[in-house]
Amino acid sequence: MELRTLRYFVAVAEESHFGRAAARLHMSQPPLSRAIRRLETDLGTVLLDRSPSGVSLTPAGTVLLHEARALLDRADRVRDRVAAATGGATLTVGLLGDSADPDVRRLADDHRRRHPTVDVRIRETGLADPTCGLHAGLVDVALTRAPFDETGLTVRPLRADPVGALLRADDPLADRTALRLADLADRDWFTFPEGTDPLWQSYWNGGAPRKGPVVRAVQECRQAVLWNGTVGMTLLDHAPGTGLAVVPLLDMEPSRAVVAWRADDTGPLIRSFVAVAVAAYTGAHG
């Protein structure tokens, strides 16, 4: 058995669908199906029950999934240790202003326990680039928030956070139990610099063109509201600070925390970081 074939099998098992697994692996479906068939032939058993709606694991497939994950994890650790021995194990992580997030701190602890010799370099970015430098090649992996242009990237969801309107504490709307976007239609909102990803700009402006002060960082957003009475959006569980208030927005989709990396970068350090990130976030909220 080749490690590549085991990775194929794990992807199909986790996605429960050949098409979704092929998309995740950035390959077409026919060669993926053939590889799994060859694996079943080599092992002399059926690993997947196939149906029009997808696939499910047979008892033999369940055993192989457990063993394959352990073997692939061991292979990744071998590569990491060899890289560390040559002094070449470095990982640059982009953070979008959420370095105080408890899940980020948990991820940092878990990653250090798993890869104590890897040199992790942090690049914290402003709000104008939600990819944290991925498109520019400045980071290897990013902990950020969707939506943004995902061209050439692979994005894995981690958590969904409700959002609310950020207002001055003495704003007439600050005492409301909840708001809708229509309640804020005639107000100035903070905006992002010219050239900011339009999907990102649209989300944080409630899906409509807005006018107002240009901000580049979370603290600038808060100051724009405090000094100008501007409307902003923020996560409901983020403390707004003195003089500010957050009111839930009923018709806004939650903000999605994600981990993203370049689609052509499938090295073991990236795969391991993503796995640790998913475990750190889902373990805390599952």
Short key terms for the protein model shown above:
286 residues, alpha+beta, 8 helices, three-stranded antiparallel β-sheet, five-stranded mixed β-sheet, single chain
Written description of the protein model:
The protein is an alpha+beta fold and 286 residues long. It contains eight helices and ten strands. It has helices spanning 3-15, 18-25, 29-43, 59-85, 102-114, 198-204, 218-228, 268-285; strands at residues 48-51, 54-57, 90-95, 119-124, 141-146, 153-161, 163-168, 232-235, 244-248, 255-262. The strands form three sheets. Strands 4-3-5-10-6 form a five-stranded mixed sheet, covered by helices on one side. Strands 8-7-9 form a three-stranded antiparallel sheet, covered by helices on one side. The chain has a two-stranded antiparallel sheet with strand order 1-2. α5 links the parallel β3 (90-95) and β4 (119-124). α1 (3-15) packs across α4, α4 (59-85) crosses α8 (268-285) and α5 (102-114) crosses α8 (268-285). The longest helix is centred in the N-terminal third of the chain and has 27 residues, at 59-85. The mean pLDDT is 89.
Summarize the structure.
The chain is an alpha+beta fold. Helices cover 39% and strands 20% of the residues.
Q: Which class best fits the helix and strand makeup?
A: alpha+beta
Number of DSSP helices? 8
Helix share, percent: 25-40%
Task: Name the beta content range.
Answer: 15-25%
Mean pLDDT: 89
Order of helices and strands: HHHEEHEHEEEEHHEEEH
Strand order of the largest sheet: 4-3-5-10-6
Largest sheet: 5 strands, mixed
Separation, N- and C-terminal Cα atoms? 34 Å
Low-confidence stretches: none
Can you count the beta strands?
10
Report the principal-axis shape: elongated
Rg (CA only): 22 Å
